[in-house]
Amino acid sequence: MDGTLIFQSLVLGVLLGGLYAILAAGLTLYFGVMRVVMIAHAAFVILAAYLAWWFHDKTGIDPLFSMVFTVPLFFGIGILIQRVLITRLRPATLTMMSVLLTFAIALLIEGLLGLFWSGTQRRVQLSYSGSNFEFFGARIAVVKLIAFGLAVVSLALLFLLLKKTRFGLALRATIQHREAAQLVGIRTDRVAGVGFGLGLATAAVGGTALSLDATIYPSLHWSWIGPLMAIIVVGGLGSIPGTAIAALVLGVGQSLLQVELGTTWAQTVFYVALFVTLMLRPQGFFGGRLAQRF
Amino acid sequence: MAKRRRRAVSWAAALSASVLLVTACSGDPRGGDEDVVLIGVSLPLTGDFSEPGKGVQRGYEAWVESVNRDGGLLGRRVELKILDDQSAADRVVQDYEALIALHEVDLVFGPFSTRLVIPSARVAEEYGMLFVEPAGAANEVFEQGFENLFYAAPAIANDHYDHLADHILSLPEDERPQTVAVASMDDPFAQSTAYGLRDRLREGGLEIVVDEEYPPNTTDFSSIAAKINASGADMVVGGTQYQDAVNIIVQLRQLDYQPKLAAFSTAPTNPEFSAAIGSRTEGIVSPTGYTPDAPYPSNVEFVELYREMFGTPPAEDEANAYTTGQVVAAAVEAVGCAEQGECQERLVDWLHENEVETIVGPLSWDGQGRPEGAHLIQQYVDGEIRIVLPGETGEAEFLYPKPEW
Amino acid sequence: MRNASDTEERVGGGVDAPRAGGGFTLPGWSRPAGLAVAVALVLLFPELVPNAYVLSAGVIVASYACTATAWSFMGGFTGYVSLGHAAFFGLGAYGTGILIRDLSLQPFLAWLLSGLIVLVITIPIGIAALRVRGASFVIVSISFVLILLLVFQAWEDFTGGANGLNVPRPFADLYRPDHHRIFFYLFVALLAVMLLTWWVVDRSRFGAGLKAIREDEDKAEALGVPTRDYKLAAYLISATFTAWAGGMYALWFGDLDPIFQFSILLGAYMVLMALLGGVRHLLGPLVGAVVVGTALEYFKLEYGDTQLHLVFTAVLLGVVVLFMPDGVIPAAGALLRRLGPQQSSIREITAEELLERNRAAAAVGGDADGRGGSGVDGSRDGEEDGR
Fold it and tell me: Model ipTM?
């Protein structure tokens, strides 16, 4: 095993981990504010990637600019999903039924993608898709770096929003204790709606980042939702910093294991981590106190 | 007590209604239209194999057009009944079940992709139907003990690269590539092609430095590309279908890996290929069972008709489908029947004993339905697909080493 | 529109709503007669069909009915929604195939054994999944399918990988329609065993404990129900039956492919069928499977296998979850019941609402004692529905 290959894999792993982090952040946000496991999150990611591809295909403008439309659109859809659909469910069975409901949404998106754009695999054709530069002996592809940068910037923004603004305070209060937050005058249902919108907006950003260097097809979301769910459990349900750390660790782990075990076996690292976490520390390894109770 | 009774009755009603619904949705077996030969086929018009699936469909349509212009089969007009199996094995089985038992087709043609051929061939076998197919080239297909199956192309997948292997091994030691990296989709067809070449090269003394395998739905090839790059292999062999080849090439370019020879199955024969990888195709090699320039009389006719119908020259999938039609037609004309039942057995027997003239040359089969021929090797030369091997039929010089991509 | 049945209900259960509200009384022979007609129709089905295709569709629907009923042992009794039951289906199917291939076992012996192997494998999975409630259970159930999909694709030497696994026909050289006929009856027999098991569990202390978990797990635990063991036992029963359904499918279908055996969609179908029919009813999942399965086959035949059936499944699942989480039959019943007094199961009502309603009832002064018993009635309702 030579050092260059390991270093190259490490670099690829960090780049991949960044993408995982922004995608999983949304997922953990929904769970935090609503105790909802949003199965459709990855489907929305793929939808955003399709929109980016379509936008590029029709206009020839760089797919990154599709975010001008998709981010607000997804934010709105997120609020709608929370206010119109999720709140209709009975509180007693919310967790289970919301899974089924979001599962149905995921299927719906997959089906509609297939109807509109067929099951054919798609890929954005960029002039710079093969461009790369050297980085201490490893090669970094420009498209991968852009995706990583996008992920880091949006995660940082999300973090600042939660830590530094009044809204962030309200949102964190809602995550920590919904009833108490209501008592101090926070309109938790409105906060939860915006939280849902934010989560879906991260799906738009993540999907666009994904579209730069990935082949997409309608049923692709199933191979993303598994790793993402594993990440949020390992990181501790509801904790965004925990999610980011778990995403990086598992992304790098996957990338390094690929060298030894090949692509398929390496992907099992997520599920092994998930089972180990549930057996040893159901509340997650990096904070998050919610899993025990739900 | 009444509520229980009501419920039991409503269940019984629901059940019977559903049973009746199943019985009622039996469709419309065609009402004894004796002037038509109805041919059933299931194709992946959506899903993983939709691109080649549509190619096969165009090939079948061209064949139907050609037969009907010549007065049909046995004087009867030919019609196709095409169902979409979405590249899924459970669907392809139900499709052939429906074609044979429900639509009562007279003949069936094979679907696309080896993994779909085996399940559908079993349905045909168990209904006693002749099963000529355009796509199941991997060895597994012929090891299932099917008696009614014939592959309508010149060679099985393991032998596709034979001419390339011959050529490489004929080079002087110091000019040959020394190391080879292999990556193949876990798919019977893709693997057979790549591993056929890999094994020949290994026996010839070349070193296999990377041997990777990935499942069909893989989209992230960065680590496979990293390994190939790290090995610095002189030659890269891809056992690929379509999109995976595009992805591997893009990832290899991202790592600035420049092999002396790059061979990929299937994808480079697809018309979309050069657009998909940004025209960096120069020097890429692929096996093909077909070239539009082949001199066989029926091929000249086929290319002309195809151009007239679709405006482009036919590619390999189209040609294989057309060949399937030719093979079945030859048997039908010789035996003089086309319907379900004992006729099918006579068609099968005839094909086992005879040779058929097709657009890819004369075809004959062994007892398991393996064709006995070899594939050509194509290469992108000056942006055009040219047949480069074997040397005597080559349209251009074999380009080696490959220019940078 | 009050009638004799109302009085009967009142005497029997105190406050159970008049389900036959505005209805009529059926003669006493109608229940056995209705069931007899249904059973006869099912058994005669292979003789009634016009062609082998419809028969093969019937086999598929029967296999759906088996999986949906098996799913319901967990999802119905305990209320734990598993989206990953396709994992057990696939394990049962592959187990059967591999046992025949490697040990040359008699096909049906392999089938039986494969179910038992899945039972053993499920024990640690169940323990991990049931350590935490709700969300994590669902995550684990989905992850389990996804991980098995990967493993069965990657472990080529053992499972055949993406090339698939060919399961030899248990009855060699059979004309295809005869093959379908035999398997239709085999699936129906398996289903009958499951229904019988359900009927037995439903009447047992164990069944009552499971339903207590469904209604309120904390209270059940406080009352001394061994919730963890009960949940695990239900999970094991459910997994084993699903595996047997999968094994039977393998023997019938013959070609296994990881993508189709470990498919999330298959798990979703099970949930949809069970929920649609009503998970609390003995025959609910069966009815759901017949309705959804027939609709799916019909859809695919008429409109080709486009993505439309995915949209259809999604919309149907969404509608069921949002508007009739207890199933179509209870929902239809509820529509009829609108005329009568309102009442609901305990899980659908908060303490405040209950209090509010009791106050209102007291204010009206009429039916006070009846309404006050609403909570008790709720749990009774669950019991009754199982029958």
Answer: 0.84
